[in-house]
Amino acid sequence: MNIFVSYTRRNNEVTINSLINFSNKINSLGKIFIDLIDNNSDDKQNRIVEELKKAELLILIKSKSIFNSEWVKFEIESANEKNIPIIEFNINDIDNLTEKEIENKIMIEMKPKNASG
């Protein structure tokens, strides 16, 4: 599964260490794209757009200024247009959640709403 991680660093709540740790916790779920870590392209903005096109899941790391970011708004709109599931994690939780807790949340939220348990 291609996973796109959306976040903003505007308020310095989201750190590169938090993103690296989070990426390490979810890398068993598929191919992860976190701009700050994985974008070594000359045309960084185009790379973001291309990764969004390939995404099968968007993980939104929520922080205080998340909705002040035009890029985050664009990423959410793009996911919604493609009917890509969006799963939210609070920045205050991601360092403390275990790999299994993150995986469980993703699997529960990705489960079709009409599926029986």
Provide structural commentary:
This protein is α/β, with parallel strands linked by helices and 117 residues long. The chain has a single domain (2-110), classed as Toll/interleukin-1 receptor homology (TIR) domain (Rossmann fold), CATH 3.40.50. It is 46% helix and 17% strand. The protein contains six helices and four strands; from the N terminus they run E-H-E-H-H-E-H-E-H-H. It has helices spanning 16-26, 35-38, 44-54, 70-81, 91-94, 99-110; strands at 2-6, 31-34, 57-62, 86-90. A four-stranded parallel sheet has the order 2-1-3-4, with helices on both faces. Helix 4 links the parallel strand 3 and strand 4 (86-90). The longest helix has 12 residues, at 70-81. The mean pLDDT is 92.
Question: Outline of this structure?
Answer:
This protein is an alpha/beta fold and 117 residues long. The two termini are 23 Å apart. The mean pLDDT is 92.
